[in-house]
Design brief:
Blueprint (H helix, E strand, L loop, with lengths): L5 H10 L4 E6 L5 H14 L6 E5 L4 H11 L5 E3 L4 H9 L5 E5 H6 L1 H6 L4 E5 L10 H12 L2 E6 L10 H8 L8 H9 E9 L9 E8 L5 E2 L12 E7 L1 E10 L2 H8 L3 E4 L1 H4 L5 E9 L3 H18 L7 H16 L1 E3 L5 E3 L3 H13 L5 E6 L4 H10 L6 E4 L7 H10 L4 E6 H4 L10 E4 L6 H9 L11 E9 L3 H10 L4 H21 L1
Parallel strand pairs: 1-6, 1-12, 2-4, 2-5, 3-4, 5-6, 13-20, 16-18, 16-19, 17-18, 19-20
Antiparallel strand pairs: 7-11, 8-9, 8-10, 14-15
Helix pairs in contact: 1-2, 2-3, 7-8, 12-13, 13-20, 14-15
Length: 513
Amino acid sequence: MEELKEYQRQACRAAGDKPAFGFVMDRGTGKTPTYLKNSEELIQRGLVRRALVTAPLSTLEQISKACFRFCSTLRPTLIWGTKQKRVQLIQTPKGNIDIINFEACRTVQDDLLAAGYDMVVVDESIRIADMDTQVSKVVKALGKRAKYRRIAAGAPFTEGLEDAWNQFDFLEPGIFGQSGFWGFRNRYCTLEQKEIPDRDKTGRIIWIEEGLACTTCAARAEARGLCEFCGCPIGPRRVPKMRKYQTITGYKNVEEFEAKIAPYIFRAAKKDVLPELPDKSFETISVPMVEEQKKLYRQIRDKQYSELSDGTEINHANALAKGQKLREVASGFVYGDDRKPVFVPSGKYERLGEILDDGIYGDRKVVIFTAFRPEPALVKETVSRCRKKIGVYCLPEKKELRSSTIEAWERHVGPAVFIGNVASTGVGLNLQKADWAIFFGLPWSQDQYSQAIDRIHRIGSEVFQKVFITHLISEGTIEEKMLKALTEKTDLVNMVLEDLRQWQKERDEWISA
């Protein structure tokens, strides 16, 4: 049986038998065995009969294995499979701690609520930061029926303090008073009122008449007649109907906020509790687009601009969609109307082969993060063409095969790469046998990006002097802006949104002039 480190034992003591507690521990510091050990202690003392852990799908098997590695009396049950199978596992318990992924909570919510869990643990509680999702509502309903509630997260406030409200409202309802989220936001967030053009259901700007103006040069006029500047007729002046909204620009009363949550959490910063971990070295390799790829990229970008020139609303949804299309071309393919990938030449694959040939040796292990489903197969083919003989392992879609695949990659004699989508590979997997991570593709999410890096920079990586993070970027594309936003920790979708809005504003000003 593996033992916890001293700071993990301190966290367990701090949680004790408190009804509500949060393990705010940096990724890679071992929060999973910590909350499992606390759960086991409560079960052993007879305070908890049956516990439930909700977590991201990719982490379930790791949590189950951690039960056996660190706890002698926990008997985990993985709640997965078909809906019928999940219901059966919930209704006929064989262990004392059930483990289920967030998405599945929605499909079996009635059975979960009827199961009578005494303890509910929310692993990666940032997943319930949005209070309006069905998953958040189910998890909070479970928490209300449980005597003991726990949250565990490396970064519970990824985007800002507003992320905290729903997580702590699950943990201890009323911790911030009884005024709900909007009262919390008014108390701790600095708000600025802005105006944007109002639009109808189709996304078209709503225009209203406001005074008189020249129909040609738009010069304002006091009465009908001819414009004194250009001689054209004076008519009704049309302006957009404006809609007011509030946006968060900063935070206030932060010390008060910290004081309210302090009794409920144990913090573990990686740099403090694991000073022996290696330094991280970051490198960006820019790859010029080939001519065919460059031409397609420009065509798609110009088409997007023309689609926005008719006053179509620019919002998060279409900003994300348009940014996604540009990312596809930067990665060397584009989805057709039938949702099948159409491949275009990309210099990134050739450059990937070159850096692997130059940098891989001995038994060195490497993780390659991709962003799209078509990429792993192409990356695998690229690795197979390298001069050096390199073992290749891909993250299986079947979750029950993931642990055995990772173990095979770890045991591989000679250099080996592990390839996986950043959204799946970047959460919950232990890949600390690698000292080199290559981002072939980037995620939209700052949280996913940080999580992916922490797959190799965690307990166990202290055997290396340094871990290396390489970004492979298509030159002159949206990937450059994405990397800038990720490293500066700004919102990526807003970055694309503002870029599109700025283009539309400049175009409107040019037309008006």
